[in-house]
Design goal:
- It is a single chain.
- With 154 residues, the protein is of the alpha/beta class.
- It is 28% helix and 30% strand.
- It has helices at residues 43-54, 56-61, 74-84, 97-101, 143-151, and strands spanning 12-14, 20-22, 31-36, 64-70, 89-92, 105-110, 113-118, 121-125, 131-136.
- The radius of gyration is 14 Å and the shape is globular.
């Protein structure tokens, strides 16, 4: 697992529009909240995305970009954004490379069945590209507010 105070793994991944988003593009200009979620348009993921969207103006004031990541493709992400009017960029990690780099692809157990999946996790990356938070197994409700309060301290 990743820890605070280490360099954030670099990435270059398409967003919902098929545009390549690079972590390096934000260096020196923006903090980044990078949150990983299991699947578009599912209950917990929708709560989390809607709460980040509701606070987007505050994240902007804190010089922070919010990026959501799942293994869904660009079309799925765009449909999710359109359905709920989301204002976050969603990155399509269809290969799973970004999930592996941030160590969020882990074995999970539900109803006695073990399978691999994305563990809901969030990373705050400062303008120097360092991890200031590395949170695994987060709960969606109220998470966006907690992350906003943290980036406002940077």
């Amino acid at each position: 697992m990743l820890n605070k105070n280490q360099s954030a793994p670099l990435f270059s991944t398409p967003n919902q529009h098929g545009e390549t988003i690079n972590l390096a593009d934000f260096k020196a200009n923006k903090n980044v909240v990078l949150y990983f979620y299991p699947k578009d348009d599912t209950p917990g993921c929708t709560i989390e995305a809607n709460q980040f969207t509701a606070l987007m103006g505050e994240f902007d004031k804190a010089d922070t970009v919010v990026l959501g990541v799942s293994k869904d493709n660009c079309d799925s992400h765009q449909a999710f954004i359109d359905k709920f009017g989301l204002k976050v960029d969603l990155l399509a990690d269809t290969s799973g490379e970004l999930c592996e780099a941030y160590d969020v692809w882990q074995e999970k157990e539900k109803n006695g069945v073990k399978k691999m999946g994305i563990v809901r996790s969030t990373f705050i990356i400062d303008k120097e590209g360092m991890l200031v938070e590395a949170l695994y197994g987060v709960s969606p409700e109220g998470h966006a507010q907690a992350m906003l309060e943290r980036v406002q301290q940077l």
